[in-house]
User: Fold Monocopper oxidase-like protein SKS2 from Hibiscus syriacus.
Amino acid sequence: MTLSRFWGLFLLHVALLSSLCFAEDPFVTYDFEVSYITASPLGVPQQIIAVNNKFPGPTINATTNYNIVVNVRNKLDESLLMHWSGIQQRRSSWQDGLLGTNCPIPPKWNWTYQFQVKDQIGSFFYFPSLHFQRAAGGFGSFIINNREIIPIPFDTPVEDITILIGDWYTRNHTVLRKALDAGKDLGMPDGVLINGKGPYRYNDTLVPDGIDYETINVHPGKTYRLRVHNVGISTSLNFRIQSHNLLLAETEGSYTVQQNYTSLDIHVGQSYSFLLTTDQNASSDYYIVASARFVNESQWKRVTGVAILRYSNSKGKAAGPLPDPPQDEYDKTFSMNQARSIRWNVSASGARPNPQGSFRYGSINVTEIYVLRNKPPETIDGKRRATLSGISFANPATPIRLADQFKLMGVYKLDFPNRPLTGPPKIETSVINGTYRGFMEVILQNNDTKMHTYHMSGYAFFVVGMDYGEWSENSRGTYNKWDGIARSTTQVYPGAWTAILISLDNVGVWNIRTENLDSWYLGQETYVRVVNPEATNKTELPMPANALFCGSLSKLQKPQDVTSLATSIRSKLFFSVLMIASRLFLVSR
Assistant:
């Protein structure tokens, strides 16, 4: 063998060996610079968290099974974690971006997330999860498209349009945080933003002049996919478009039975896809409205977001009153019945070729049951706190997953109760002990006076029932055991319960929390720890090489350890080039 041929084979083998570390699925890479900017979405200059100087941040656009690389540069003056809401992080809770799994990214440092969107499709979003930062922005949409070989259950729309709605305060997030620390309520929001912009001036009294508003441009006779996310703090919003129907098609990774709605309540943290057909005469522009729900609507009129839908052949500006919200201010039955009507499309294929309904969740035996009950905030040890089942969660200095990795004792307690505590509430780091491959039933009982939504990381759970009053064993007789929607965030009405079923097949440490940012900040959360007793890389990936250390493990952290995984990605590309060059070299010989 000649020396040149030896080196050609050597380079080829090195490149092939390197490529074994990565799936054949494509990589998409994003650089996120998270910083403060000054903007005036409601006409008042304020400090906002931007991503790459954009508010909202850029959309992450991927396809099922893609590998996502996000290099985050923290240019804030406080620590940061980015959470990928609804992304299941299969086998890798290390990348979830929450304090139970990750040490924070210190100011002026960078850290690279790398994860695969394994077996997922749908509409999601990301946001900063620490220090009440989501109240200042930092959020953006996250789209996972179907692979080409998997058909979608509707004709391909001409365009994807992202709409981020949410309540908004003109006070900085640090001021809001201090108010909560002082035991105060946040009070009524100052407005609702749509894609980071204030309301169109539909009313000269309620909306000041000079507000920048969102305009969505469309063509007549087309069908568009609207991906709508409530990224707000604590307000449920009714979403509607004047004179148009909204055909519901997907929510948080599940295709739904397709139904038309004139409006839909979208609760904090929830995401929906609608098909919008532009079938009106365009005599004028049309209002897009997101208005506050389950409040005194006469007092909350300013808490309304208004954007504009503009046909290319529009004959004039929108004018006149907004389209009416549901006329049920004092009767929440309509909203609950609407929520119950959202069902799983069991015949549609999701991320895989087999129909969604081939997973027959209703025939699986439940192995563990937890009743998680909330109540209005209460004083514990002199501090105003929010609880689940009588426990207000205290985040440990060392993340739970990191403590497990290094076998640290005393970081948390694996003793979260199956039923609410009967004694006085307490502040603890109490975690649910989930059984790998178990099937968990969770009843979310809302004894607070306001609407809550609950989210679980790592999974899509099945929403099988909801009703007013206290849940009891007899409530199971009302469960939907066939086509309950699979999603990651569900609403629980005040004075009511929602039941969910979870197949615990994803190893890791997974957060379950209220999405209401004020109650979450005050401790209304816990984690579900799912461990495979046969520890193997097949069910959980190793700790990432760039893991940050904090708490009891701070001594392991060195400044030079905070390197970007972008280096490894560049190495991958380098070896790919080497592989191609080697093949060309061998062919030329």
